Every structure is written in structure tokens, then in C-alpha cells.
Task: structure prediction
Amino acid sequence: MSASLQVSIRRFAPADWTQLWPLLRATFEAGDTYAYAPDSREADIRTTWTEAPAATFVACGPGEQVIGTYFIKANQPGLGSHVCNCGYVVAPVAQGRGIAAALCEHSQREAVEMGFRAMQFNLVVSTNERAVRLWQRLGFKIVGTLPRAFHHRQLGYVDALVFYKELVT
Amino acid sequence: MSASLQVSIRRFAPADWTQLWPLLRATFEAGDTYAYAPDSREADIRTTWTEAPAATFVACGPGEQVIGTYFIKANQPGLGSHVCNCGYVVAPVAQGRGIAAALCEHSQREAVEMGFRAMQFNLVVSTNERAVRLWQRLGFKIVGTLPRAFHHRQLGYVDALVFYKELVT
Result:
């Protein structure tokens, strides 16, 4: 692991999009971590990541460079809306420096402030070992395994995992 | 179990909505099986049940009475879109007569025809014993348990189950 990087995490602003889109596009194009189609259109991803969620955040490094992001939203309507769902992306150049952990810890605090009682990740790709280890280290439990639920761009059909953490007990 | 009822299952048509809405409203108002807010608005549920999904079906009893329904849709975008999700509702007066099983078996055939490879139920309320037994009898496996993920209107926070069945192997 490289030295940690000084980052600030703040709410997404529309002016961030020009930096955020290349980051998201590259991540989804790889087809190894998120289900969004590798050839997703910019307008659709902008809606999905920055408009549909309850809130979107960015992690900025030196010079206001956007090096990470997450969204937070209710995972289900009404009687399931006390459980939130988040998605995180970190720029390849900034990986291994604790940014994902910082984003996830930030999101857990935000979640509690927003009134959520638990956090659920619906489709963590089982071959994404870095994420699987990190979520466990941050107190999430694997509560489900979905057989061949993810069509990995290189590996074909692989299992996906459901992670869950209660934030309020 | 009462005698089985002769039903036909066909695609939802807009003219069915006047019969379908009271059925869905009563189901969601009970707050014991679906996450949709008990006070959901008609327009929102119409979109959710009949427009957003890939397809919606109704089960009709004698005299074209709508006594059941289901929707089918992809559970995730892109690289997760080979797994479908369905929701089923049966009128209280028609329960215990095999309608839910008939709808689920119908949906599995439709799913395969539509190109889906597996079916996932994301939030089956653990206290809904009738559903839990039925899905298991129809070959679904409990692949996950979500602690206190459903806010049951009578019982408070209860666990929800994730069911999964591979349709194509």
C-alpha cells in the first residue's frame, strides 16, 4: 500500500461532472466491478449516479482533482427504505491509498445522519478481491451469494455477493 | 387447501387496471409482504407494476375477474441483466388455490423465453411463511438473509430473505 493521500470529501456539484464522467466511464467499461453496461451512455450514468440517488459525494485530491466518488440512496421503497445502498468508485491512480475506505466510512456517517439503519451492497463481484476484503474489514458481512449473477467481461459468469452492515442497533 | 380454480394467465392490458389497482392497494396497505409504502399513490404503483417492468401479466378467473398478477424485469442493468426479478400478488379470496404457484411457474417459462438465465427475489419477508414455503417448493433457494431489512407494519423490523433460482444451467 502506498502512502495515504490527503483528500477532502464533499457533496458533488454539477461542475464536477467533467472530471467524474471519465472516471465512471473507465470503471464501467472494464466490466469487472459494476453491472452498468460497459457502453453506457453519459446521460444515463449522470442520472444514475448524480440525480437518482439521495446524495452523491466526491473525494478530491490536491488541486481539486476528483479521485473518487460515491452515491447513497434507499435500497428499497417504503418499508425497506431504512436500508441504504451505496456505490463507490476510486480512480486507478489513487487506488491502494485508503480512498475507498475513507469514502465508505464517510458514507456510513452520512447514512446515519440521513436516518438509515443499515447499508446493503447488492452485487459485489466475487472476483473483486480488493473490495471483498475491504468491506469485510469495515464491518460488513457477506449475507448472500448469488450464483453466476454477474457477467464479468473477462471471466464470464461469476458469483456476486450481498454485503450488509447494521449501522443502528 | 381449497379446490383449485380454473384460471387463465395473459398479458396485462390497460383496461385491467381498474380491477388490478384495488388488489395491489389492499396488498401493499397491509404492509406485511411488499416494501411499497402502504399509502403509495395509484399513479406510482401503476408505473412500478405495469410500465417499468419488461412485462406484466394477470391471472383471470371466471368472468375475466382479475385474481392475480405478476411483473417481470431485469434485476440489474447490463452485466447483471441476465437475472430477472418478479413480484406476485394474489387476491385474498383466491389464495390457497394454487394461483401463486401457477403465476410463478408461468413467469419462469416467460423468463427463459425472454432470455433470462436466473430469477431473484430481493426482499421476501421472513414472516411471510406461505411465500417462503412456496418458493422453496418451486425450486428456489434462500441465498441470503437481510437482518431486520423489512419494516413490517404489525411486527416492526423483521428479516428479509433473498431467493434465487437458476433457470438455465
Summary: Residues 28 and 37 of chain B are 7 Å apart (CA to CA).
